[in-house]
Amino acid sequence: MLLIRCPYCEEERPELEFRNAGEAHIARSANMAGESDDDFEKFFFIRSNPKGIIYERWRHIHGCARFFNAVRDTVTDKFVMTYKAGEPKPSKLPKNSNEVVAK
Amino acid sequence: MSGALRIPGAGRLSQAKTARFSFDGQSYTGIEGDTLASALLANGVHLVGRSFKYHRPRGILSAGAEEPNALVQIVRDDARKTPNVRATVQELYDGLAANSQNRWPSLSFDVGAVNDLASPLFSAGFYYKTFMWPKAAWKSLYEPKIREAAGLGVSPERPDPDHYSSRYAHCDVLVLGGGAAGITAALAAAETGVRVILADEQAEFGGSLRFESGARIDGQDGFAWAQAAIARLSAMDNVRVLPRTTAFGYYAQNFVGLVERVSDHLKAPGHDLPRERLWQVRARRVVLASGAIERHMVFANNDRPGVMLAGAARTFLNHYGVAVGRNVGVYTANDSAYGAAIDLKKAGVNVAAIVDLRDNPSGPVVDEARALGIEINFGRAVIRAGGKLRVSSMTVQPKNGGGERTIAVDAILMSAGWTPSVHLFSQSRGKVAFNDETKRFVPGAYAQDCVSVGACNGTDGLSATVDEAYAAGAKAAKDAGAKAAKGVKPKVDASESWSRGMLGAAPGAGPDTTVKAFVDFQNDVTAKDIRQAVHEGMRSIEHVKRFTTNGMATDQGKTSNMHGLAIAAETLGKPIPEVGLTTFRAPYTPVTFGAIISHARGPLFDPTRKTAIHPWAAAQGAVFEDVGQWKRAWYFPKAGEDMHAAVDRECVGVRSQAGLFDASTLGKIEVVGPDAARFMELLYTNPWEKLEPGRCRYGIMLREDGFIYDDGVVGRLAPDRFHVTTTTGGAPRVMNHMEDYLQTEFPHLNVWLTSITEQWAVIAVQGPKSRDIIAPLVEGIDMSDEALPHMSVREGKICGVPTRLFRMSFTGERGFEVNVPADYGQAVWEALWAEGQKHGATAYGTEAMHVLRAEKGYIIVGQDTDGTVTPNDAGLDWAVGKKKTDFVGIRGLTRPDLVAKGRKQLVGLKTKDAKVVLEEGAQIVEDPKQAIPMKMIGHVTSSYWSQNCGRSIALALVAGGRDRMGDTLFVPMPDGVIEVEVTGMVFFDETGGRLNG
Ligand SMILES: [Zn+2]
User: Fold this and answer.
1) The CA-based dihedral angle spanning residues B270, B271, B273, B279, taken in that order and rounded to the nearest 10 degrees
2) How far apart, in whole angstroms, are the C-alpha atoms of residue B397 and residue B410?
3) Interatomic CA distance for residues B165 and B159, integer angstroms
4) pTM, to two decimals
5) Computed from CA positions of residues A19, A21, A25, A31, in that sequence, does the dihedral angle turn out positive or negative?
6) Mean of the pLDDT values across residues B224-229?
7) Among B76-85, B236-245, B510-519, B859-868, which stretch is predicted with the lowest mean pLDDT?
8) Is the bond into B933 cis (omega within 30 degrees of 0)?
């Protein structure tokens, strides 16, 4: 079972308290009704599904109930870092994931 | 006497404490502290099972958890018949009853043994080749026969009466394995004061100190030192010592699963004891001290009962006081087996000969064996074991060929060397590395905060092990936050040192031979099978493994993997690391389902949710149905009524007088805040800004793709307050959906969402008399049609308690839904029920509710829709706000496929024969005479007998359905084709006059 750090509770908690909510940083258009078919396809259907670093959303559903973002390595399952919803996609990742989690 | 082969003065068990037991119905006597294996061996019993594929007689190979052969069934009673128990692990108790497995009619005469003669049929890959054709025969013939013939034990006939428990634990240092290495590491860590857990799978700690008679630590015999150390550890407050506890799985971030066998060793465990306990431990640091497992020699007939691992024979002697034979032979490729020969010789057992593959070994053990007068043959191989139900001889030959010599023996003790147990390390996602010099896979790169010490790390010798373990234990404690160690490292006074050994087939079982030299005993895989797999094109060890099933039995190849790998590598002409090692997977040894599910069975498997009105319904004799976790009253049968009669009566009762229905399970969410209406505009297709407080609206929620996600009636209590209802099953996901958008897409909106499902009990009162029933109990609400029209909501009191009174209808009748705080739910229900009795009211359940709404063509999301249905498809286009510029799903609705012609649309169906009720899910075709497979144009989503309509009614999704009004379509069923007419969705009161009537 993974330990996940909730950026709102500022605590590492067991995976059981959380629920994955899909890929992060896929913005909903302010002019949704006017989106082209191609743009809507990208928004709704296309996901990166990478081998390696993924930016994804989680919800601390059995905790503070907040949605937040996480950077996770899909090969090792290790969480590199977590951050609050609405914060920008981190441009630089910390080298040692454990250090970040322990902060 | 506890067995003729018990050696007086040998071993550590007290001869005074005898225990009676039976094996295959025959009675024997053992000693408390025995395993079933040691007790059988003490009585001279080696034959304990038949092999999986060839039904060859098999004996006891090992003295531990790696045992592949000695699997038995332990029978306590009808419900407690545990199959596949390793006799080497099962502790003896007085009255223990065990049976052999996989044999018929008896262990010594087994009809299935013809498989051994027919073995060419069963060679590598036989599952894939022999049973390929014809296809149907697999299910009806081959599979049942294989299962019957190859079964491992018998399932109990009754549910498991035992209980199991589960605990979470946290510690600073978790030490897995309680031999010299694990105990030393635990001591080093514990002395710093950090929290330590030490677990070992055996009943007693000590690991190989159980048999290693040459070990002395801190001035004591090694095993005695181990017991003293465990006593010290157990007395420390910061240490938990867990014997009989197997670490079976190593998961992410130092999360380790352990199973403690709590009562399988007890004669009559009280019901206050669980059978097993699952420990889920999160550790800051893990020390792996899992030891090493001895390998057998791969030679012809190396599976005969009496042929066993040398270390096991030594354990049986030095710990249990049992000689595994009276005239034993030893076959080895390393030093460690000499210890077995020496100890047995000293105990008075005749050692016929040591056969050593090595050309000219020397050292203290060789000298000692020679000094004891044991015959030693260097540079020779045992090419064959004689005997059938018990080994009777070993045939020896110079390893490069030459004259054979047969030596009579009643046991062969073998050792090809020791394989480090890297299972848990590998499970932790660490990468093993091959040491070319020692031919061993040892821990390489680590993926988690753990460290390996001792034999599992490839560390040879007791001194080096203790040094390494003490340093690692202290460092793990320090890394976990400890200050400084205060203890003293144990001092090794004497130890044994072992050399390396060999991998693969021994001489006499080489590529030019066809002998049965077993690599994997449990799955009956021979050296020849592995070579054949390579010859047939398998290149990766993963393919060889699956083709031969080597290492795929319940022992997971603990003794066989390295031999199999070496033979495959040799056949491929590649170095071992290039062929690769198969993946080690959890569980390390089999884990019972009981331990995993613990108390989560029966009523505790899943929470049961009951409404406030449940006790009343139960007292009325309601039949309940499960709706998610809810128990809902399905119908209320009166004496002599079946379900149909009850439902017909309830449906007619509602429309003729009135009905009471418990709608409490309906999902309810309160949407509150200055931006509540704006939020509702975005989450639902409907317009909300202009809905007046006190009025209600039927709302539709979409996903972004434009498909219906949920629906429900929403009441606006105030400008900033909406009472939203959802489907019963949809409540949690609708709440999640709303929170998701509020938190991440529309965080600028000032809105609070609260789940109020369990705060309000909901009593639906429906039918022409509904107002007459409610009105006398209500205070502060004008119940007139003018003041309280259809689709409105008021707050007031009923029976003196607060209510949110909705005028709404899911039946098509004048109707109300009375929301009261859940604590008053039953009291208000009972008051309404009493009032209702004056007006002939009926209690109705979910089945009547379904029929009544279908008579009106009201859909149920999830039954009449399936995640691919748009509002337009469902005939609900009127509920989509045409002037709105945004809501979730607005763009999805205009996708090309969603506006295309010919989409499946909801329509009504009437069977031509009014008495015929369609099956829900039945497929619909245009032309029943077309060839199979027919073109299906839709399916039935809802179908009922309607007593109110005097006929069957149905809803269906049909391609282009609304353009087919009046058309005849067909529903082909196994016993004939049913003709139906396409109609509108409303079957009763088409004008809707009764809503206000
Ligand atoms: Zn949180």
Assistant:
1) 150
2) 19
3) 17
4) 0.88
5) negative
6) 98
7) B76-85
8) yes
Distances (CA, A) of B447 to B254, B432, B878: 10, 11, 58
Contacts with B252 from chain A: Cβ below 8 Å: 1-3, 77-78
Q: What is the number of other CB atoms lying within 10 angstroms of the CB of residue B901?
A: 7
Residue of B nearest to A68 (CA): B744
Question: Could you give all domains of chain A from N- to C-terminal order, each with its CATH number?
Answer: 3-102 (3.30.2270.10)
Q: Give residue B112's pLDDT.
A: 72
For residue B792, pLDDT beyond 60: yes
**Which of B250, B744, B749, B753 should be substituted to probe chain A, the one whose Cβ sees the most A Cβ atoms within 10 Å?**
B744
CATH number of B662-846: 3.30.1360.120
Which runs of consecutive H residues, i.e. helices, occur in B9-97?
36-42
Q: Is A64 exposed, middle or buried (0-12, 13-18, 19+ CB in 10 A)?
A: middle
Q: Is it the case that residue B148 has pLDDT exceeding 60?
A: no
How far apart are the C-alpha atoms of B295 and B557, rounded to whole Å?
11
For chain A, how many helices (H) and strands (E)?
Answer: 2, 6
- CATH 3.40.1170.10 is held by the domain B166-292+420-494: no
Question: What are the b/e assignments for B100-139, b being 16+ CB within 10 Å?
Answer: bbbbeeebeebebbebbeebeebbbbbeeeebeeeeeeee
Strands B525-526 and B57-58: unpaired
Tokens of B172: 């600073």
Q: Per DSSP, what are the bridge partners of residue A19?
A: A59
Q: Does residue A83 sit in helix, strand or coil?
A: strand
What does each C-alpha distance from B912 to A10, B616, B790, B915 come to in angstroms?
A: 66, 41, 35, 9
Ramachandran bin of B776, using left for φ above 0, alpha for ψ from -120 to 50, beta for the remaining angles: alpha
Cβ contact, residue pair B736, A59, below 8 Å:
yes
Question: What superfamily would CATH give domain B854-996?
Answer: Probable tRNA modification gtpase trme; domain 1 (3.30.1360.120)
Question: Which residue among A33, A43, A67 places its CB closest to the CB of B743?
Answer: A67
Which residue intervals of chain B bear CATH 3.10.20.440? Answer: 18-117
Residues in the 5 Å CB sphere of ion ligand 1: A 6, 8-9, 60, 63-64
ipTM of the complex: 0.94
Residue A32 to residue B886, Cβ atoms within 8 A:
yes
Per-residue burial over B141-163, b = 16 or more CB atoms within 10 Å of its CB, e = otherwise:
eeeeebeeebeebeebeeeeebe
Task: Tell me how far apart the alpha carbons of residues B300 and B223 are, in angstroms, rounded to a whole number.
Answer: 36
CA distance B511 to B159: 50
Contact B891 A35 (CB under 8 A): yes
Chain B contact set for A64 (CB, 8 A): none
Q: Where in chain B is CATH 3.30.1360.120?
A: 662-846, 854-996
Kindly state the tokens that stand for B667: 């999902």
What architecture is the B18-117 domain classified under in CATH? Roll (3.10)
User: Strand pairing of B904-911 and B976-983?
Assistant: antiparallel
State the burial class of residue B670 (Cβ atoms within 10 Å of its Cβ: 0-12, 13-18, 19+). middle
Residue of A nearest to B255 (CA): A1
